[in-house]
Amino acid sequence: MAIVKKYSSFGEHLRKLREDAGQTLKTVAEQIRIDISLLAKIERNERQPTKQLIKQIATFFQVDEKELQNEFLSDQIAYKILVEEADINILKVAEKKVSYLKTKKNAD
Amino acid sequence: MAIVKKYSSFGEHLRKLREDAGQTLKTVAEQIRIDISLLAKIERNERQPTKQLIKQIATFFQVDEKELQNEFLSDQIAYKILVEEADINILKVAEKKVSYLKTKKNAD
DNA sequence: TGCCATTTGGTCTAATTTTGTCCAAAAGTA
DNA sequence: TACTTTTGGACAAAATTAGACCAAATGGCA
Questions:
Q1: What radius of gyration do chain B's Cα atoms show?
Q2: Smallest Cα–Cα separation from B43: which of B64, B5, B16, B77?
Q3: Share in percent of chain B as helix, strand, coil (round to 5)
Q4: Which domains does chain B have, with CATH numbers?
Q5: Do B93 and A84 touch (CB under 8 A)?
Q6: pLDDT by residue (tens digit) across B56-75?
Q7: Predicted-complex ipTM score
Q8: Do B74 and A97 touch (CB under 8 A)?
Q9: Confidence (pTM)
């Protein structure tokens, strides 16, 4: 298993990918065809990337798409828990709900 | 610790509360001052209750508000994971992010 | 069976949220 | 200083969602 450094946010990770590739916002934005400012905002987590955009980013930087999508999702969940000041245990509850609903779905 | 039956959704729980109280959609909707149809949709998870509404519901049925809010949130998270067909492990990642961000926040 | 209460479900508008763009200001660098 | 890069505010456009209204369906029971 590869040792993968995890980032505290999708944006941070994206910025790291870009900087490691020695690229500027401009060059990347042009190549994935979005506004520089939008890309900058995504890196600062001020805008949320669309699924499609995450896919393009993954392709561009040659990283696993599914992993990026998951990272973005976990971001969203973490953010929601923080702003709602929710109990961290709701994640366990959510997990049970998912298992339950998956079983239920398969039973249909 | 009280034994609490958990429901697979917020709406299901709400419906149970109402039926246990022997009330109809009409009587509850009138008392919390929302449209009958809206309440019905919330029970069927076709509409999302606002925070404010969850508060009113908690007050009305005399249940713990925070618990209801948490139930709604865990619902949202479970739903998102299902529709995105995301790996269940993102919940663990999200948990780590929350811990990390909380620490970070406190350090500011 | 027919009546009335209750619940469902579709459609629509208004409100809210979010995105993406534009541009000027700030920051960094040589 | 001149140039590149990044930031951040403002705003219109797009997308999403809530809430209202009403008709149809369902259910109980006299």
A1: 17
A2: B16
A3: 70, 0, 30
A4: 10-107 (1.10.260.40)
A5: no
A6: 999 999 999 999 999 999 99
A7: 0.87
A8: yes
A9: 0.89
